[in-house]
Design goal:
The chain is α+β, with helices and mostly antiparallel strands. It is built from 27 helices and 90 strands. A hairpin with a 2-residue loop joins strand 28 and strand 29. Helix 2 runs antiparallel to helix 3, helix 20 crosses helix 21 and helix 22 packs across helix 23.
């Protein structure tokens, strides 16, 4: 039997070399090339060949390696790889070979094939490599189309494989046998590393090469511009920006030609704009090659990405002044490389180069690189294979083939294969990822990891797989259905409900019985219904579909197709002047005309009576003025301006008519003051009535102006009108502009005379019905019926901008007018008192509105305002219309008065609704009785109003525009259904007094809720008492009834909160804290505070930080103390919170309530007690925090860093530990900032709960307990921990530490003994050290247990879910893989049916269809020996019975013979790869050699002398990859001290010898019973050991007391990337004179 050793010093030498990847290709004498056409397209192929096993330079040369470049299958170039060389071009391209060496060993061989044709038809290449002892290898096809190529391969990665010693082109068993037979000889063919002797290194190399097959890595490297870019366009851009000497296309070709560039202008900067492609060119680096004499050294690269992002990367390679340098490979060129950070699609690159004075730069090439080939490509790490993803209900189950000798796996996932930004860890080869969004593709990858030995190791990430989670139920209803009419068609759009796979569309003519289904399944949220009848009204509805069925139908909406032609506006005809008769000349803005969309001949096309012709401006920042000159002066006071009645031709295709916001007018060359020009809109903005002071007009200039962000102004037709005094005479009846007072002297006869004239008037710009209504208005005033008018006097100034500036917060500026109006109709609003520079808006809010169609607004001016109330949203969703409001932010609101007039014939457009609108002056400073007196009239009006509504069902109550009421207080405005408010106040049967009391309580509750919110956010100071409080902002929180989207019952929309119909009555049922009584308070519940929190949230962590406001409101008690039970407490979230913080893994918690815990714990830790209603204390922390936040403190750092900085500043503590336990990854600058805020927080506040604060405020003291721990391995992968504590009353819980790292937090249950089961995952044959830390309820460490060690060691078996097992008709056990192949290493039998004798055979095949035992492989034959378990590992086919190697089979079927019939199938298990294991030799782990031990090495014989202390044991693993370390535990007593001695652990120095049998075939691999021997270097350590360790050594002396063995495994035979794979428990070191004698015997 032959043995060999493996020493820790590294007998098998070799390491990866360090060098630059290749060198710049040497340019051959270049032929003259053109301007960069496709015919001149060239690229290159770079190759890095990695020598994975050590090889000397002479050994490399002796193997005569060579490479052949083929094009279209024919050899093009051939070169030897044994030395550095450059071959001439010869018209076929060039190749440069470079060796990278380290000492006498070759590490890498670099090849560059340059000047290769990239023209279509002659751009397909392949590389073939061959050499003595190598298996020939040919790469896949390499096509030089868009990019050059980079190739990476190695001699040990199954590509250019070293190991063919027989010369047959293969590395197989014959080669292994040949090397084995040549061991200890100088056989040159078998000396694979060229060191002159055939040894174990050569045997290892050929063993690993057996049957290896692999593929080289292929990279897309430099862009080939001639094939991808518009070089003429680039030349145009570059020459326009810089002075160019040479051909611009040479900048992008490696042709030896250079381009001299100089700045244009006086600045010392050269700008090179390089437009690429609209879709973007993927790249990661930009490289600029320039002349060393005139180099590019300093500048900026600006990359404009396809997503619209702009990256600006400065670069500099300038040397200090007076310093000059050359490189060892100086070829007269300088290369600057600029990284873009990661690979991005770039549309344009701009390079700005700084020059030295007026010196030019000379550029030889600019390269755009997509993939960056690593300079030192490494051997692949262990990698997860056979990853499979199976979609479940809102989850995905992952399964994969296990990796040996690790402790677990990290699963990375996300919604893009390039952004796997979420992760979980698993100890198994399965993992279920839950809480995923159904029907959205997710991507997954798995990485093997190991935390053993105190360091983190990661293998290679698996391939990415994808799966789309399934739905748990049918889709939610689609929302926001809209229809847009077209010519014979309707365009339908919608918002799909959750879990929708696709949508179907149904339609019918209104009134028909059956719907038709539009052909197709729609996934892009829109569809077009064609073939419809113009002018016919259609009903449309949609529904969602998924694999479980269809959703409820959407709302049904109406749409009417119409021909794609202009509707001629119905302009007034009275007193209209004939343009053709009066206009003698016209000037138009010829310099601002978009000729692509303007129609007709200008300027005549704007006054020819044809609405199909028009002018459209090309930009907003040049004149848009038209000037008209008349044949003589005409008296005028208005004109009509008709815009282009079509839509923009591209982009959003918005109507031109909707862009106007004002007009400028000049008369006879004099500008009319802006405040004297006003305009009114015609129906649907089809025309604008531009009004100005009455003048005699000879020339007039009119210019439309647009609002910010609008499209361009247009003009289709202009109309002029001669002055007629009727409207002015009627207006003169009134003494004010609001038409609420009559002028002096108005009599009945005056009114009637004007009525007669108005009744006869033709169409006038003021509609006849409006003139007649004004006369009715005068009649009402004349008869003293002013109370019939709808008048609103005195506006509040409510400014969102002012509030934002003063408080950092704003809300709704709406002021209700107490009326609701039907849309699609005219009303008039008469206004007086608007001061110059101020504005008033009329706002209509659609009743029961959807979020995408809520309001329309209209600018009001003094005097008459004719307003067409446009339809908001879709018809078919109920009545169109809703409440009217004004918005005003000026300072003269008391002077403003409005009158609203319903000008409809039946007066059915406007309804007066119940309204209560209390200002701060109405509320504050008044007694309860005084306040209730203001409420009582509203309650009475509400009862009367609702009684007259006669709404039969809930749908009518939701959609009726009359079922609305407004309830306003100082800080809130409730816009709710009148029927629901009445119901909330007690219903129609309740008395006015009861209803008034309830309403008063509700208003008080709103005041308190907003007081809490404002104090939380720092809008009011922390010491404000509620008794002194007045709502500070001018804008108010608007809570309004809204149409919900699927699954919602409330939502926040910035300026308002929308609530569902069923929730509206609850908005008037609140009560102040003083009336709380038992249970929760009545501040309207979690939802309202949650939505208000959304609108007030400053941090911006949606569904998390907005809930700070909810928790504040929820925990407010009757006394005003914030000590109530929170949702985190009630719903049991603290266990999850503590689990998150114990582990401290990076990233936010997936559960928003768990993450909310981080913010709430800051309140729990630092806010004091007392009543929040009486002053400071309970809300000081966030009051100060948000005050700082809104002051822009630390605003220039990332949001998480900012949160941490401000929190530490407020707390006056270093809170870095707190935020790190919450998974925040903070910058070093932020950590330093936190440290400067104060001492680290003594408490572990990440373990605080609501009870913690209550106890702190009650004066509870820190707890001190003595926890004890017992640990027991059970069930293979689990460890049972039993925790005992002497006084559990104040214990919050126990932090469980495994190997010094927290792995869990066990919440205390109040008992003295608790248990915890730890799952150790994939780890096996390892020792785990457990400890628990008891944390008290105040967040202090209360006690720490002693450490307990337990070793996990079990036989790892495959999951029975992976296979089916049965007995066939012959009694054989037949095992079949359910999917794919089973990777198994052996057989484990358990139970009482194991026989004491007899043979068992295991047969395997990888053919799922193979008939039993036909062509199958015998994996193992062995004998039973009785006992409770039977274990056997599979062997290599044909191996001897005593072969100790473990052989892994990938099997589709397994048949076992000899298994007793009485053995239960569940007692038969398949072994997984067993993994490494190390154990001490029982009875001889530490001893003294009885006689010299001599063994063979590569250098000859070596001996260990008798009397040497040695350590022995066994291992399971691969001696080529394993190493053994011995860890010693030392005990040291402090000088002059009786304190407990100090313990430390240190790796012992010495030689570790690994012994393994070399099998007959020479293929060394994993073995089941290897042997190790360790010879400590310091023998005296063992001679100083006291047997019982009880005697005190002299102070300062370290005594060795215990040892443990550790087994490590490297990723390659050099030991790179090593990880610990197994270790033992500590064993005591015996006294030297009592150590056993050890003698070795060997068998030849």
């Amino acid at each position: 039997m032959n043995w060999y050793r493996r020493a820790l010093s590294g007998l098998l030498a070799g390491a990866m070399g360090v060098s630059l990847l290749g060198t710049a290709p040497v340019a051959a004498a270049a032929e003259t090339r053109g301007a960069g056409t496709v015919q001149d397209a060239e690229g290159e192929i770079t190759v890095t060949l990695r020598l994975d096993y050590p090889m000397t330079v002479s050994g490399w040369k002796a193997r005569a390696p060579k490479v052949t470049l083929k094009r279209n299958g024919a050899a093009l170039l051939q070169a030897g790889l044994e030395k550095a060389q450059t071959l001439p071009d010869g018209g076929k391209g060039s190749v440069e070979i470079a060796l990278r060496t380290e000492g006498e060993e070759v590490r890498y061989v670099d090849m560059t094939f340059a000047g290769l044709s990239a023209r279509e038809g002659e751009n397909t290449y392949a590389l073939s490599l061959e050499g003595t002892g190598f298996c020939p290898y040919t790469t896949p096809e390499l096509t030089l189309d868009t990019h050059s190529k980079g190739v990476v391969l190695g001699t040990g990665d199954a590509t250019f494989t070293l190991g063919d010693v027989t010369g047959d082109g293969l590395a197989d068993q014959r080669d292994v046998a040949r090397v084995r037979d040549a061991l200890d000889t100088a056989d040159a063919a078998c000396d694979l590393n060229g060191d002159g002797v055939v040894d174990i290194s050569d045997l290892a190399t050929v063993t690993m090469a057996q049957d290896a097959q692999g593929t080289a890595q292929i990279f897309q490297t430099a862009l080939i511009p001639a094939n991808t870019l518009d070089l003429e366009r680039i030349q145009e851009a570059v020459t326009a920006a810089a002075v160019v000497e040479g051909t611009v296309s040479d900048l992008f070709a490696d042709n030896g030609q250079s381009v001299k560039l100089s700045p244009k202008g006086e600045e010392n900067t050269i700008t090179l704009p390089i437009p690429l492609t609209e879709e973007g060119v993927e790249m990661e680096e930009v490289a600029i090659v320039s002349s060393a004499a005139y180099p590019v050294e300093t500048g900026v690269v600006v990359a404009e990405t396809a997503s619209g992002e702009t990256l600006e990367i400065p670069f500099s390679q300038a040397l200090p002044e007076g310093v000059y340098a050359i490189t060892r490979t100086d070829d007269g060129r300088r290369t600057v490389t600029i990284s873009l950070g990661n690979r991005v699609p770039v549309k344009k690159i701009t390079i700005r180069v700084e020059t030295k004075g007026d010196e030019p730069v000379v550029v030889e090439q600019i390269r755009f690189l997509q993939d960056i080939v690593p300079e030192e490509p490494a051997v692949h790490k262990p990698k997860v294979e056979q990853l499979r993803a199976e979609a479940g209900v809102e989850s995905v189950t992952l399964r994969w083939k296990g990796v040996a000798n690790i402790t677990g796996y990290r699963v990375d996932y996300g919604t893009s294969p390039d952004a796997l930004n979420q992760s979980v860890e698993s100890g198994e080869t399965t993992c279920v990822i839950s809480k995923l969004e159904a029907l959205k593709p997710y991507y997954f990858a798995v990485t093997p990891i190991s935390d053993a030995g105190g360091s983190r190791w990661e293998g290679a990430r698996s391939e990415v797989v994808t799966a789309t989670p399934k739905v748990e139920s049918r889709p939610d209803r689609p929302d926001r259905l809209q229809v847009e009419p077209g010519d014979s068609l309707l365009t339908v759009s919608w918002q799909p409900g959750k879990r929708t796979q696709y949508v179907r569309v149904e339609y019918r003519k209104k009134g028909e019985a059956a719907f038709q289904t539009l052909s197709g399944s729609f996934q892009n949220n829109s569809a077009v219904i064609g073939g419809l009848e113009n002018g016919t009204e259609y009903e449309v509805r949609v529904y969602g579909v998924n694999e479980l069925g269809q959703s409820p139908y959407s709302e049904t909406v109406l749409g009417t197709p119409k021909a794609a032609e202009f509707e001629t506006p119905d302009l007034p005809t009275a007193n209209r002047l004939d343009n053709q008769s009066i206009i003698v000349s016209a000037d138009y803005p010829s310099g601002n005309t978009d000729w692509t969309v303007s129609k007709g001949t200008l300027p005549g096309s704007v006054y020819d009576g044809d609405y199909r012709t028009s002018w459209v401006a090309s930009t907003y920042n040049r004149s848009r003025a038209f000037t008209f000159t008349f044949d003589h002066a005409y008296s005028m006071d208005y004109l009509i301006y008709v815009p282009d009645l079509g839509n923009e031709p591209s982009g959003q295709k918005r109507p031109y008519r909707n862009f106007f916001d004002k007009f400028n007018v000049s008369i006879n060359g004099q500008a009319v003051p802006e405040d004297q020009v006003s305009f009114e809109k015609g129906e649907n903005n089809t025309y604008f009535i531009v009004k100005f002071p009455r003048s005699d007009v000879k020339t007039i200039t009119v210019e439309g102006s647009q609002w910010a962000g609008a499209g361009n102004i247009s003009l289709s037709e202009i109309a002029f009108y001669q002055y007629d005094g009727l409207a002015d005479e009627i207006n003169a009846l009134f003494a004010n502009e609001s038409h609420t007072e009559l002028a002096q002297g108005v009599e009945e006869g005056t009114i009637e005379a004007l009525r007669t004239r108005a009744s006869r008037a033709e169409a006038y710009y003021v509609d006849r019905k409006i003139l007649l209504d004004e006369l009715d208005n005068a009649q009402q005033l004349l008869e003293g019926r002013r109370n019939e008018l709808m008048v609103y006097s005195g506006l509040q100034s409510r400014s969102a901008g002012a509030d934002q500036a003063a408080f950092g917060q704003s809300a709704s500026a709406l002021q209700p007018l107490g009326v609701s109006a039907r849309s699609g109709a005219w009303i008039t609003v008469y206004v007086q008192g608007i001061q110059p520079g101020e504005s008033v808006k009329l706002v209509q809010w659609q009743q029961y509105s959807e979020t995408n169609a809520t309001r329309a607004e209209y600018a009001l001016r003094n005097g008459r305002n004719q307003i067409w109330l446009q339809v908001i949203g879709n018809s078919g969703l109920g009545e169109r219309g809703g409440s009217l409001y004004v918005e005003y932010a000026g300072s003269h609101g008391e002077d403003i008065q409005l009158q609203i007039r319903d000008v409809s014939e039946n007066k059915n457009v406007i309804s007066v609704i119940p309204m209560l609108d209390l200002s701060g002056a109405d509320w504050y400073g008044h007694s309860e009785q005084e306040r209730k007196e203001q409420l009582k009239p509203y309650v009475e009006a509400l009862k009367t109003y609702v009684a007259g509504l006669n709404l039969s069902n809930d749908q009518a109550k939701k959609t009726s525009i009359r079922n609305v009421t407004e309830v306003g207080g100082p800080g809130m405005l409730l816009s709710l259904p009148a029927t629901q408010v009445l119901a909330g106040l007690g219903g129609a049967q309740a008395s006015v007094e009861v209803m008034t009391d309830k309403l008063y309580d509700a208003l008080c509750a709103w005041e308190e809720l907003l007081f809490l919110a404002n104090k939380t956010q720092g809008i009011i100071s922390a010491d404000t008492s509620f008794a002194d409080y007045q709502y500070p902002m001018s804008t108010r929180h608007n809570i309004r009834f809204s149409r919900m989207f699927s699954g919602a019952f409330m939502f926040a929309a910035g300026s308002y909160v929308g609530i569902e119909f069923s929730e509206t009555s609850g908005m008037v049922t609140g009560a102040p804290l003083a009336e709380t009584g038992t249970g929760a308070n009545a501040l309207f519940g979690w939802g309202i505070a949650h939505e208000i929190g959304h609108n007030m949230d400053k941090i911006g962590k949606a569904e998390i930080t907005n809930n700070i406001y909810s928790l504040v409101a929820q925990t407010a008690e009757e006394t005003g103390e914030l000590t109530g039970r929170s949702r985190l407490e009630e719903s049991g979230f603290y266990s999850d919170i503590f689990q998150k913080t114990a582990l401290g893994k990076p990233g936010e918690a997936a559960n928003v309530f768990v993450q909310l815990g981080m913010y709430w714990q800051l309140h729990l830790a630092y806010d004091e007690g007392g009543s929040v209603l009486e002053g400071s204390g309970p809300l000081d922390f966030y009051n100060r925090f948000f005050t700082l936040w809104k002051s822009d403190a630390e605003k220039n750092v990332p949001v998480n860093d900012r949160i941490a900085r401000l929190a530490s500043q407020v707390a006056g503590k270093d809170l870095s530990a707190f935020f790190q336990h919450w998974g925040m990854e903070l910058s070093q600058e932020t950590l330093a900032y936190l440290a400067a805020q104060g001492e680290p927080e003594e408490r572990e506040i990440w373990y605080l709960s609501d009870e913690s604060r209550r106890l702190r405020l009650d004066g509870a003291e820190r707890a001190h307990v003595t926890p004890t721990l017992e640990s027991t391995a059970s069930g293979g992968k689990t460890v049972e921990l039993t925790i005992s504590v002497d006084d559990p009353a104040m214990v919050q819980g126990y932090e469980i530490l495994r190997n010094g790292t927290p792995v869990a937090f066990l919440c205390a249950d109040g008992t003295a003994v608790q248990t915890y089961t730890d799952q150790v995952g994939a780890a096996n044959h390892m020792v785990f050290t457990y400890q628990v830390r008891a944390i008290d309820k105040l967040g202090y460490e209360a006690g720490v247990s002693e450490e307990q060690q337990v070793r996990i060691s079990y036989e790892k078996t495959l999951s029975p879910e992976l296979y089916e097992i049965r007995r066939d008709e012959m009694g054989r056990v037949h095992i079949t893989a359910r999917e794919g192949l089973l990777s198994t290493a052996g057989l484990l039998l358990t139970g009482e049916a194991i026989p004491a004798e007899g043979n068992v055979q295991a047969w395997v095949t990888d053919d799922a269809g193979a008939q039993p035992l036909e062509g199958w492989t015998l994996a193992r034959e062995t004998s039973f020996q009785g006992g409770e378990t039977f274990l056997c590992y599979f062997q290599k086919p044909g191996a001897d019975a005593d072969d100790t190697r473990i052989w892994i089979y990938d099997a589709a079927q397994i048949i076992l013979t000899g298994i007793p019939e009485e053995m239960a199938l569940e007692d038969i298990q398949l072994l997984d790869y067993p993994g490494d294991n190390i154990e001490f030799t029982p009875g001889a782990s530490i001893g003294v050699l009885e006689e010299d031990f001599t063994y063979d090495t590569e250098e000859g014989k070596e001996s260990i002398p008798a009397g040497t202390v040695i350590i022995t044991g066994s291992y399971r693993g691969d001696p080529l990859y394993n190493k053994v370390r011995i860890l010693g535990k030392f005990q040291e007593r402090k000088p002059a001290s009786d304190e407990a001695p100090v313990l430390r652990e240190t790796v012992l120095e010495g030689d570790a010898l690994l012994f393994a049998e070399i099998p007959e075939d020479g293929a060394v691999s994993d073995i089941s019973d290897g042997f190790f021997l360790f010879v400590p270097l310091d023998q005296d350590l063992f001679k100083a050991v006291n047997e019982d360790h009880g005697e005190k050594p002299s102070a300062g002396t370290a005594v060795l007391i215990e040892l443990k063995a550790q087994l490590y495994r490297g990723e390659d035979i050099e030991g790179n990337g090593e990880r610990m794979t197994s270790d033992t428990l500590f064993i005591s070191v015996p006294r030297y004179d009592s150590m056993p004698a050890i003698r070795f015997t060997t068998e030849e």
